[in-house]
Amino acid sequence: FYDPLEESVDGLRRRGARLAIATNGGERYIGAVGERLRYAERFDRVFYHGHRGISSKEEMVRVALAELGPGDALFVGDREADAAAARHAGIPFIGCAYGYGEEGELAGAARVVATPEELARLLERVAA
C-alpha cells in the first residue's frame, strides 16, 4: 500500500466504490498492517490466507464478488496468482510492475503500470 494510493482508495470509497483486498499474508501480519493502514475504513472486505477457511486468491475473489456484487470489478496485483484469480473470475487484471512479481507474471494483464503514481492516475480515471 503505497502513499499515492491511499488518496486514490479513499477517493474511490467517497464515490461509493465497493473495495476488497485479497492477500496471501496471514492473519497476524494483516492484522498489524491493516490496523496501521486503516483497512477496516478503506475496504468493504479484507481477505487473507486462511481467513474464513479460504486459502487461494481465486476463492477470495469469488467470495468478494458474491458478497459485494460484480459491478465494474477489476483486480490489481503484482503476481501470477493475482492474474490467474482475475482470469478465473472473468474480470480485468491491472498488473503492477513495481511489486514483488517477477518478469512474465503479469502476462495477459489488461494494463501494466510501472509505478504507484501511475496506478493512482489509472484508478482516478476508471472512477471518474
Largest sheet: 3 strands, parallel
End-to-end separation: 22 Å
Strand content: 5-15%
Mean pLDDT across the residues is: 91
Question: How are strands sequenced across the largest beta sheet?
Answer: 3-4-5
What overall geometry do the principal axes of the alpha carbons give? globular
- Unreliable residue runs: none
Helical segment tally? Answer: 6
Order of helices and strands: HEHHEHEHEEH
Helix content: 40-55%
Q: Which structural class fits the helix and strand makeup?
A: alpha/beta
- C-alpha-based Rg, rounded: 14 Å
Count of extended strands? 5
Give a structural overview.
With 128 residues, the chain is of the alpha/beta class. It has 6 helices and 5 strands, in the order αβααβαβαββα. It has helices at 3-14, 27-36, 39-42, 57-68, 80-89, 116-127; strands spanning 20-23, 45-48, 75-77, 93-96, 111-113. It is globular. The mean pLDDT is 91.
